[in-house]
TrEMBL record:
It holds the Pfam family Polyketide_cyc2. It comes from Streptomyces atrovirens. Gene3D superfamilies: 3.30.530.20. This is SRPBCC family protein.
């Protein structure tokens, strides 16, 4: 079983506001850094994205990938890889836990398997960088949004 990498951050906003930013794929290029294009390919009955195509540029790694999303209640979303040029697999999730009034703890878990050989230690370090940058970008985006 592949090892996952995870990290958490506290965001000064309600869980619904945080999930609203996570679910707004069209705006990902505005705050994620690595996502250059995002296109929702399919939605569920509630209008939430089920399949999203992302064009990524993370320096050494450039990729065009499609991810399938699963929404669990109002506080969790997970995704898995449908297709990619660079990746063999990618599984991730955001889990939101309401904390003190008006704050939310966000946990991001990620497991990536690339098609090119890579040492486990280097892969986990890359996962950690991706997670930390995503959480920092999410926090900045949510907390700077007009209330």
């Amino acid at each position: 079983m592949a090892e996952h990498t995870s990290s958490s951050i506290t965001i000064e906003a309600a869980a619904a506001d945080v999930m609203g930013v996570i679910a707004d794929f069209a705006r990902y290029p505005d705050w994620t850094g690595e996502v250059k294009e995002a296109e929702v390919l399919a939605t569920d009955a509630e209008g939430r994205a089920e399949q999203v195509r992302l064009v990524m540029d993370a320096g050494a790694i450039k990729d065009d990938q499609t991810l399938a999303y699963t929404w669990t209640g109002q506080h969790e979303v997970s995704w898995t890889l449908v297709k990619s040029q660079m990746l063999r697999s990618l599984d991730g999730s955001y889990i939101l836990t309401p904390a003190a009034p008006g704050t939310t703890e966000v946990t991001y878990r990620l497991t990536v398997d690339v098609k090119i050989p890579m040492l486990g230690m280097i892969k986990r370090k890359a996962e950690k960088v991706i997670i930390d940058r995503a959480l920092a970008g999410l926090k900045k985006r949510v907390e700077s949004a007009p209330k």
